[in-house]
Amino acid sequence: MRLVTKMSLVAVAVITLAACQKEAAQQPAVLDTDEAKQSYSLGVSVGRYLDSTLDEYSKMGLSLDSALILRGVQDAIADKTALNEEEVQTMMTALEEQFREKQAAIAEAEAAQAIAAGKTYLEENAKKEGVTVTESGLQYEVLQAADGAKPAATDTVKVHYTGTLTDGTKFDSSLDRGEPAQFPLNRVIPGWTEGVQLMNVGSKFKFTIPSELAYGERDMGVIKPNSVLVFEVELLDIVKAETAEK
């Protein structure tokens, strides 16, 4: 999210100039040349951007008057603004601060909610038969046992896996890509580094990973801050160092 920049204000000016031509606006757009179509497309693009920007402010509880926004642009072009430059800068700074404060408050509330939901999920999952909880808080369940070797943190492993959120939303899967993943075990999230070392080659585990052993407060797109993650992992092989480097 971002505030209206100088470039976007210039874009708004394009809309304003078009809006001020009331008689022309009442007539269907004549799009008989590439230049005309480009001009119209620019206006459509800018209009959508302005609408989405105002929507972002609205979600933050900041109600802005679109008519006054356009009027401000029009007055600026005519060099007859009702506020002087210092007042304009003061108001824009205040608006930006309000926006950021609202953002921070919402992020804090969402973080608290995610932490509480994750804690509840972990507590309930830990009660399930077959689930083991390690000292770090990592939870795992053996889905398929095997007698193969176990990797060390410094090993490179080859695995198939599927990762989901606690609501079942899938965010990644080597199975869907049709190719196993291969990586050094000490270069992934802590929950993976710890958990896969518990596995024998050929086994399949289900890991429920607390957020602090996953991505913590980082926003990873589908994976929101403080998310508990669930992985089903099959350890296919431990790759020798010389093989992994090729």
UniProtKB/TrEMBL annotation:
Keyword rRNA processing applies: no
Enzyme class (EC, first level): isomerase
GO molecular function: peptidyl-prolyl cis-trans isomerase activity
Signal sequence segment: 1-24
Pfam families found in the cross-reference section: FKBP_C, FKBP_N
Keyword line: Isomerase, Rotamase, Signal
GO biological process entries: protein folding
The PPIase FKBP-type domain, residue ranges: 154-239
Catalytic activity: [protein]-peptidylproline (omega=180) = [protein]-peptidylproline (omega=0)
EC number: 5.2.1.8
UniProt similarity note: Belongs to the FKBP-type PPIase family.
The protein's name in its UniProt record: Peptidyl-prolyl cis-trans isomerase
